[in-house]
Amino acid sequence: xxxxxxxxSVAFDAxxxxxxxxxxxxxxxxxxxxxxxxxxxxxxxxxxxVGDDFPQEYLDLLTDRNIDISGLEVVKGGKTFFWSxxxxxxxxxxxxxxxxxxxxxxxxPKVPQNFKNADVVMLGNLHPLVQxxxxxxxxxxxxxxxxxxxNFWMDCALAELLExxxxxxxxxxxxxxxRQLSGEYSLVKAAxxxxxxxxxxxxxxKGEHGALLFHNKEVFFAPALPLEEVFDPTGAGDTxxxxxxxxxxxxxNVSFENMKNAIIHGSNLASFCVEKxxxxxxxxxxxxxxxxxxxxxxxLTQFDIEL
Amino acid sequence: xxxxxxxxSVAFDAxxxxxxxxxxxxxxxxxxxxxxxxxxxxxxxxxxxVGDDFPQEYLDLLTDRNIDISGLEVVKGGKTFFWSxxxxxxxxxxxxxxxxxxxxxxxxPKVPQNFKNADVVMLGNLHPLVQxxxxxxxxxxxxxxxxxxxNFWMDCALAELLExxxxxxxxxxxxxxxRQLSGEYSLVKAAxxxxxxxxxxxxxxKGEHGALLFHNKEVFFAPALPLEEVFDPTGAGDTxxxxxxxxxxxxxNVSFENMKNAIIHGSNLASFCVEKxxxxxxxxxxxxxxxxxxxxxxxLTQFDIEL
Lengths: 307, 307
Fold this sequence. Notes:
The structure is a homodimer of 307-residue chains. Chain A has helices spanning 29-37, 56-63, 128-137, 151-156, 158-165, 175-182, 187-196, 236-251, 256-273, 280-284, 287-301, and strands at 3-7, 11-17, 20-21, 25-27, 43-51, 67-68, 72-75, 81-87, 94-100, 120-123, 144-148, 170-174, 201-205, 211-215, 218-222. Chain A is α/β, with parallel strands linked by helices and 307 residues long. Chains A, B: Keywords: Kinase, Transferase.
């Protein structure tokens, strides 16, 4: 089985949407990525950090999905990263109510020895220096390195972000972030500029409006599945990235054509994530549901104009 | 050849975008629809009205595309409908600077005798009573009636709009209008409610984010082609509708499966419309360019996950 190495935050989230609010629940990029990737045939490991306030129940939830957590450091007396957000009525925008870095503040990632030869590395949203450090520790060159980041690092650590971006194959960011990073409003132009920064493949996530994959002059588009109700968008982007990286890891095929399939798998998994609060839906999701909804993506997008 | 009857405004538009501004140029729903539909093998006619200030050059431009203008009334001493708009920097929103109804104010449509048996009727954006009057004049039941409308009529003539909506097969509106008409934020729920008002098929246009086609529990999505630059979005929705109605007219197939193809054709033609000011690009567009870009739509959306 191929190996997927995942780095990203592990967090407590407190979320409020028009449909309700949660206490502190499992959150962070790495769990969403790991849960999503677990629907593929692969070995995965998470590199991250939590405090000793992090419940065994959440650790079990990850190991139950065969996610290796030997690289998940538990800091004695430390507090786990905490994020709290309030979504507006349209669920397309949110206010961050609290960000307490806690143990994430001076995190030094340690890649488990048996994942230093991972086939695919998924660098989830974290400080670019942490992302770089993970790449430094790899003993064999991964077949594919995927990086997700956000505007926060463009504001606070742009030089470090640009350094790590040079070293990756695929970047996944949202439309506003692509505009910020490139200085171009047109996403086509933005993607070309970002390709010039290093990554040969640029994935631009547009939330309910789907995702675009750019490579040289080629472009592919995956819609988001139109849903009756989006309950909580938290983690949808990470779930998308996890599905993308997970499928690539399983299939061992890093061609543009196969990335099209990977983007559809990512969109498919993300469409479940938003149906309940936090990771709830991803935890009770069954493989047969995943396969069945893939058929909906086919019906949604496939047409038969003969050319 | 099958017949497509088009009703809609014929106008002078004055447009300002971040890329420049125009004097009064050819505008209105009917010319955009007619030019777009002219890329298919069909007979078309426009029912509309202009003043005698309307230049022969614009009439020629329509007849050069084999569009029958015997139903285009020219009011002696009348002034043609005038619209002026200013697009904001993102081109997704605009301010209307002027709307002078002029001869459109008390327009009584007259369907040419040889189009009273049209196969497809495209009711472009106009007062719902004008749209109803066109349907009243049909001598045979069209295979398909498509209606485009806008929020203005929902605000000012909702009862009349709901009356004509009962009589049509396909409605094309944008996302905000679908929300206004249905009272539902979710487009899936909005489409279901609108289907309950009459039309079995609901097309929701999302501009640069593509278009959705709903029918019972089924849904199809056509992306907009990602473009380096959108120059002027004016008429894109009408061009989309014209491509949709034109392809259906040519193919004589009103199945949901064929409507998927029609939506792709509409999106394809609309992607050209926005490349220049007003109708300029649609006038110099060649059929081989249209076919070539259809291939891009295939590459953009088709994937090969085996299920």
